[in-house]
Amino acid sequence: AVVSTQSTGVRIEGYQKQLAQAKKIKSNKQQYNSISKIIKQYPSRDETTKAITETEGEIAALQERKKRLEERVEKQKRQFQVLVYSIQGLQRELSEGAMEVD
Predict the structure, then answer these.
(1) Do the beta carbons of residue 26 and residue 18 sit within 8 Å?
(2) Among residues of the chain, what percentage have pLDDT more than 90?
(3) What does the alpha-carbon distance between residue 51 and residue 44 come to, in Å, rounded to a whole number?
(4) Which phi and psi angles does 62 have, rounded to 5°?
(5) Whole-angstrom distance, CA of residue 78 vs CA of residue 72
(6) Torsion angle, CA of 8/14/19/22, rounded to 10 degrees?
(7) What is the per-residue pLDDT across 6-31, written as a single tens digit (0 to 9) for each?
(8) What is the DSSP string of the chain?
(9) Residue 17, exposed/middle/buried by CB under 10 A (0-12, 13-18, 19+)?
(10) Would the pTM count as exceeding 0.70?
């Protein structure tokens, strides 16, 4: 009877260890599931990389457009300066011509 009680105690101890281990596994699974749900809210690495690549392409295209527009503005400024210079030259010629007529 003493041996039986001891073996029962040993079995109970073994079951308690198994129960503690099962609780730990269950806790880990619950933690994993919680973290997994949070992770699934965000896009995958492939999707993120694709979005970054597309955005970089858009940025490059916009920078190129900005460069073309700036060049256009500079060209128009130069043309305007030439026009103003030409107008001033014509005004001088007209003034000189008016003085000669007098």
Answers:
(1) no
(2) 82
(3) 11
(4) -65, -35
(5) 10
(6) -150
(7) 889 899 999 999 999 999 999 999 99
(8) -HHHHHHHHHHHHHHHHHHHHHHHHHHHHHHHHHHHHHHHTSPPHHHHHHHHHHHHHHHHHHHHHHHHHHHHHHHHHHHHHHHHHHHHHHHHHHHHHHHHH-
(9) exposed
(10) no
Residue with tokens 């003493």: 2
- Whole-angstrom distance, CA of residue 76 vs CA of residue 82: 10
Q: Which amino acid is at 40?
A: K
∠ at Cα 37 (28, 50), nearest 5°? 125
Q: What is the pLDDT of residue 39?
A: 94
Report the amino acid identity of residue 69.
L
Tokens 């000189």 correspond to 96
Token pair of 61, please? 């295209």
Query: What is d(CA 24, CA 17) in angstroms, rounded to the nearest whole number?
Result: 11
